[in-house]
Design a protein that fits this description.
- The protein has 207 residues and is of the alpha/beta class.
- It contains 6 helices and 9 strands; from the N terminus they run βββαββαβαααβαββ.
- A 5-stranded parallel sheet has the order 6-7-8-3-9, sandwiched between helices. A 4-stranded antiparallel sheet has the order 2-1-4-5.
- The two termini are 31 Å apart.
Length: 207
C-alpha cells in the first residue's frame, strides 16, 4: 500500500467572519489525491494550508513527520506550491524561475524539465519576462517546475485551466504515469477528476 506522506489532524481555519474548516482531518498517501468541490468551498484554501502558506488556528498538518506549526521552514522544503494566479514572478523569466526551484529542491530533475518544456511548448517563451506570457503559458511554467521539482508533496490548483488541448493531453499523460508513484504525493484541486485518469484518491469538500 502507498505510504502516508501528509497527515492533517483536526484542522480548524477561518478568515475573518468566514469559517472554512473545523476539525478537518485527512490522510494523503503517495500517488494522486484530488480535492473536489464547488466554487468557494475551500479547495484553494486547503492547498494553501497544505503548502504552509496558511497555518491552522487549531490542529496540525505534517509532511514526513514535520509539522507546519512547529518548523515551517523545514516543512516547506518538502512541498511544492505556487499560486497559479500570482504576479509575484512577473519581472523574471521562466529560466530565472527554474533557477530558483533548482536551489529550493535538491531532487530537481533537469532531464525531466527539458521534456516538460518541450511537451508544454515553452521553448519560445523560456527567456521572456513572465509578464509577457499569457495566463496559460504562465501556468505551464508552474507545471513544469512542479513536475521537475522532485518535492515530496506537489500541490496543483486547477492545473488544466487556461491550457490548450495539446498541453492538457500531455499533462494527463504525465499524471497517469505518476498515479502509481510510491514516493511522491500529488494533491490536485479541481471540480472533477478527468475520466481518463485512473487510480486516484479523493477528498470531496461538497458544493
Amino acid at each position: 500500500m502507498p505510504s502516508t506522506v501528509l497527515q492533517a489532524r483536526d484542522v480548524t481555519f477561518e478568515f475573518p467572519q468566514q469559517p472554512v474548516f473545523r476539525l478537518f482531518s485527512a490522510t494523503i498517501s503517495a500517488g494522486i489525491t484530488y480535492v473536489l468541490g464547488g466554487e468557494s468551498c475551500g479547495k484553494s484554501t486547503l492547498l494553501r494550508l497544505f503548502a504552509g502558506d496558511l497555518i491552522p488556528q487549531a490542529g496540525s498538518i505534517e509532511v514526513c513527520g514535520i509539522s507546519s506549526n512547529d518548523n515551517l521552514a523545514s516543512y516547506k522544503k518538502n512541498v511544492f506550491w505556487v499560486d497559479p494566479r500570482t504576479n509575484e514572478h512577473d519581472q523574471i523569466s521562466p529560466n530565472n524561475y527554474f533557477d530558483i526551484q533548482r536551489k529550493a529542491y535538491p531532487e530537481f530533475d533537469e532531464a525531466l524539465l527539458l521534456e516538460l518544456v518541450e511537451g508544454l511548448s515553452l521553448n519560445d517563451h523560456i527567456s521572456k519576462a513572465m509578464y509577457m506570457l499569457s495566463a496559460g503559458s504562465k501556468r505551464k511554467v508552474w507545471l513544469a517546475a512542479a513536475f521537475a521539482s522532485g518535492a515530496t508533496v506537489t500541490l496543483l490548483d486547477e492545473p488544466f485551466a487556461a491550457l490548450d488541448k495539446a498541453s492538457i493531453n500531455f499533462l494527463l499523460e504525465r499524471l497517469e504515469s505518476i498515479s502509481q508513484n510510491t514516493n511522491r504525493a500529488w494533491v490536485i484541486a479541481d471540480y472533477e477528476v478527468p475520466q481518463n485518469l485512473s487510480a486516484v484518491n479523493t477528498i470531496d469538500l461538497g458544493l
